[in-house]
Amino acid sequence: MLHGESLGKARYQEYLHGPFWRARKVRYLRENGVERCEARSCGSPGPLQVHHESYARLFGAELDRDLEALCGRCHMEAGGY
Q1: CB proximity list for 6: less than 8 A, separation 6 or greater
Q2: Overall number of domains in the chain
């Protein structure tokens, strides 16, 4: 891993544990009425985690289409943190 990639990953981890991402997750679930895992073959009622389907926009620039709600098992299968 290159030094810059390591710094980027550390910054991303910090973002995922910060107040803005916590609020963004709640807003995504509430505004989209998500109550079940959005993985095609699952539909579990949760608990739900919000996953970045796309990393094109991060650090507060995410669009709803960049995100999906997944149960913990599906999130791990998708490579989530």
Answers
A1: none
A2: 1
